[in-house]
Amino acid sequence: MNFTYNAYDFSLTANMFMNDNSIFESSFSAKNPPAACLPIIIPYIPIPMESCAHFFNICLPGRNVHFCMDWEFRVASQPIAIAHFDCLRLGQSGVSLLKPEDDGCQQPSSTILPLPGYDEYDEVTED
């Protein structure tokens, strides 16, 4: 049995071998899981309603976690209202908001800016 973790796709692949031949392979990705829904129960109203949080584009760039979220209100399994939110990156690089169309799963930039008051100079030597 061979397990392989792909950090970019946030997935796990299982591969079973017999006599050096693959007999079973399966992959599971947590990058775009199904929506998590909670029922809304109102007494004396028999219409099924639920509130759902849909997380997508989940990944671990560097030592950060990145995810995007939509909030959805459903009546009789039909979406009535959908709220789209920006993506959030939390971790070693701090907290940042990104647009869903940006590729937030790329490694954050590691550009180090000089401190204020820091001067670069060349040493002058005389012969």
From TrEMBL:
Taking every annotated instance into account, which residue ranges of this chain make up the domain DUF4773? 1-94
Q: What InterPro entries does the entry give?
A: DUF4773
| Pfam families in the record | DUF4773
Superkingdom: Eukaryota
Q: What is this protein called?
A: DUF4773 domain-containing protein
This chain's source organism reads Diploptera punctata (Pacific beetle cockroach)
